Amino acid sequence: MGLYFDSLRVMCGIFSCLYCEVCDKKLRDAVKESASTCIIRRGPDSMRSHTTKHGDVTLDLVGSVLNMRPPLTPQPISNDKGDLLLWNGELFGGLQNELAGNDTKLVLDKLSTSTSHSDILSCLALIHGPWALVYWQQSRGELWFGRDVFGRRSLLWHLPADKKDCFALSSAAQHDKSLPEGFWTEVPAYGLFCLTVSNLSVDNASITFYPWIQAGTMYQDDVDHMIKQCSGRTCLKMTLTQNHHLCVFFSPMNKTLPLTNDSGIAQSSDAASSDVVCKPANGHGSNAAKLLDVLQEAVMKRVTLIPQDTVCLQSGLDHPKLSHSVAYNQAAVHSNAKIAILFSGGVDSMVLAALADRCLHPTEPIDLINVAFEQKKMNDSTDCFNVPDRITAIASLSELNPNRTWNLILVNVSTEELSMQRDATIRHLVHPLCTVLDDSIGCALWFAARGWGSLHPSMQPFQSSAKCVLVGIGADEQLAGYARHRTKYRNYGWEGLVAEVEMDVKRISHRNLGRDDRCIGDHGREARFPFLDEEVVSFLQSIPMSDKVDFSLPRGEGEKCLLRNVARLLGCTMSSRLPKRAIQFGSRIAKLEGNSKELASDVCHRLTDKLQ
């Protein structure tokens, strides 16, 4: 095992508003109100603001903090140079921590001692871990902002239409009638942005964009689309620099192709099987051991150094700043666990659970949170919450270490409560995304992360106390776990599959992670993604696709074949053979309320029709 920073780690809700003297005050107040309700729930331990002026331009910064390790460091933090930082991130490596463990102060000190733009870019490119930041450099009058290359932390922006408008950034924001439709959009995770503040008061003001570069090339199509989109809705000009960039930490995908059959198209099996075992061929065996090592290291970084006295004993439904949830059952018992895992019993969550078991002290409990949505009863004896993910979660529990206290929390969501919480809270968090798929996944994650349900098997009311939630996102994208991957392979062979997985890794930031971070963070809990750890991604990028999947094997075996072998090494034999089932289908939220003809990509009227 490696050594880990004894660091003060935080999740933060961040907000920034930059405006000229002619900016409409009513608009500024509405923008701040839109953001403040959401960001205080992300960081219920502390909230403070700071205002600074630069000529005729004013900068307001607000930070809320969820403290993961004492002592508490309120944000924004500042130094004697007048520099300011809002940091929503985790240092799991990359920067050497010489500052007795304070991540936020370390990042500010590194940025403040930078003498050039290239120094700032080099500093941020070194960071291992999720981050979103807003950094004000007083000496240059520059506002820097952006997200890590996977967009593991949410950041929204509003670009001003004219000088009477404002420039704003926020981790999350309310979606209501006080602001125009489309006011907030997600900051693309394609690079870092720098706004020279004095530019706001002159014509042709611009934001300089520094792209992430991988092996000398950037995500050209995505960057071109972003610049074109921005130019149509703001008075600011987006300038793409050709001189400086951030280097992506992982190498390009290994595109080595195996031999195919005579037709040039690979063969696949669509049959399900309960007795086929993924063969340790084509490097699967040795690579499974290597993947196990890097994944265990990734989990270790994310579950250690969380003291017992920082468990979320006042988060969730009974926290005074999180009172948007339904009435809390005062009879519920708190788990006193530091770590929770979103748990379906499938291979991804089982691997995370088994690895967390290896990394934590034997006496520490671990919360396993399983969510189910109410289904129509077929008869009086039917359990309306007996959905596929509930069945596999209970069955898979038997494969985990029997000497550990596993708190399997069964979260049951009625149709009535789903509708109520979506209208009151969830649609604001999913915003600015608005598809049927965003609705299903956002609702499932929000209710799961709330961590309030019944303890299996006693069915006693139970509340998770964990501030840290492990999530399996990233496994399907990198290891060809979706049904469309098998289809792509069947139609276009290995080359088509490699291209599809490469695209999935590149677009994960704007398809998944901002939304998921907003929905989970709303309960004062921090999402951590071991499958997107820098070393895990680097390893998986380095090996050929044929070492990750074997589509000659049936569904439940061939996809994510490498990870299934890891599960077997961990003793999770039964769960290693379960077919992929997306959370919206496993929890049975998909199409629960909507038209059966709805497509995942359709605009969801349940998210957009009830603006308050």
List keywords for this structure.
612 residues; alpha/beta; Glutamine Phosphoribosylpyrophosphate, subunit 1, domain 1; Rossmann fold; 2 domains; nine-stranded mixed beta sheet; 15 helices; 23 strands; 32% helix; globular; disordered N terminus
Describe what is shown at a glance.
The chain has 612 residues and is α/β, with parallel strands linked by helices. The chain is 32% helix and 20% strand.
Number of strands: 23
Q: Largest sheet, described in full? A: 9 strands, mixed
Q: How much helical structure, as a percent, in the residues?
A: 25-40%
| Count of folded domains | 2
**Residue share in β-strands:** 15-25%
CATH topology of the largest domain: Rossmann fold
Overall SS class: alpha/beta
Spatial shape: globular
Rounded mean pLDDT score: 86
Number of helices: 15
Spell out the CATH superfamily of the largest domain: HUPs
> Which architecture of the largest domain would the CATH scheme give at its second level?
3-Layer(aba) Sandwich
Low-confidence stretches: 1-8, 261-266, 270-282, 313-329
CA radius of gyration is: 24 Å
What separation lies between the terminal Cα atoms? 51 Å
Explain what you see:
The protein has 612 residues and is an alpha/beta fold. The protein folds into two domains: 10-247, Glutamine Phosphoribosylpyrophosphate, subunit 1, domain 1 (4-Layer Sandwich); 286-608, HUPs (Rossmann fold), CATH 3.40.50. 32% of the residues lie in helices and 20% in strands. Strands 4, 5, 6, 7, 11, 12, 13, 14 and 15 form a nine-stranded mixed beta sheet that branches. Strands 16-21-20-19-18-17-22-23 form an eight-stranded mixed beta sheet, with helices on both faces. A six-stranded antiparallel beta sheet has the order 2-3-1-9-8-10, covered by helices on one side. Helix 5 (284-303) crosses helix 13. The longest helix is centred in the last third of the chain and has 39 residues, at 483-521. It starts with 9 loop residues before the first strand and ends with a helix. Residues 1-8, 261-266, 270-282 and 313-329 have low confidence and may be disordered.
